[in-house]
Amino acid sequence: MKILLLEDDKLYNETLTEFLEDEGFNVDSVLDPLSAYDFAYENSYDLYIFDINLPFEDGLSALKTLRDGGDLTPTIFITSRDDKESLLKGLNIGADDYLKKPIDLDELLARINMILRRYKKGNIITIKEYSLDLDKKKLYFKEVEQNLTLRPFELLKYFLENQNRVISYEEIYNYTWSSGEVSYATLRVYISELKKYFGDSIENIRGVGYLFNSSNLK
After folding, report:
1. Given this model, what pLDDT does residue 42 score?
2. Selecting from 3.40.50.720, 3.40.50.2300, 3.40.1180.10, 3.40.50.970, what CATH number does the domain 2-119 have?
3. 198-215 per-position pLDDT tens digit
4. HSE of 139 in the Cβ direction (CA atoms, 13 Å)?
């Protein structure tokens, strides 16, 4: 899961980032709203954690700007404010939760997991800018549908479920073509179709099978 953290206190930013990374999250941390915009426009996140008191503009305005642009990423506000007006304004803008400083890190983690469970799309596999909708059987890149046919889709699903391990030809045949036979040449055609999107991430282990190496995905 990928989080964008916006907190202008450098030391506190580092503390939160270290905690979240230790809990297994992939964290991009920034100190001001302008940097947050750059990261939000260039990346896809599962969650925003925004401070409210910030340089240039406050976190409430920053989230409103993102929401007005169609960004619906779940958001937690963290703040030293305790007035009801700020709380209501944040929730009306589209925040999902609100934590007052000093934050209990275990409580923060519990709130994060609760929100992510709420928003989790149970039948979608995501990897970097790609998402695989298992119900619709469609591949998306930055929310734009890609032209991927059914057999390569099923093969990609199997690769993503078995990232970073070598999958034998036999395993691929048994999973993707459980009924009927398929030639190695046909498999190569489907691999070529997937390589249009994933390039060097799909490695041919000669005489054995294939490896989906997620670290090679750009």
Report:
1. 86
2. 3.40.50.2300
3. 988 999 998 899 999 876
4. 23
Residue 71, pLDDT score: 83
The per-residue pLDDT for 120 is 61
Q: Are the CB atoms for 148 and 156 separated by under 8 Å? A: yes
Which portions of the chain are predicted below pLDDT 50? 179
Name the amino acid, one letter, at 190.
Y
Of 95, 56, 98, the residue nearest 78 (C-alpha): 98
| Closest alpha carbon to 3 in 100, 81, 78, 92 | 78
Q: SS3 helix, strand, coil % of the chain, rounded to 5?
A: 45, 20, 30
The ranges assigned to domains in the chain are 2-119, 124-216
Nearest-CA neighbor of 99 among 37, 47, 27? Answer: 47
Q: Can you list the alpha helix ranges (DSSP code H) found in the chain?
A: 10-22, 33-42, 59-68, 84-93, 105-119, 150-161, 169-176, 184-198
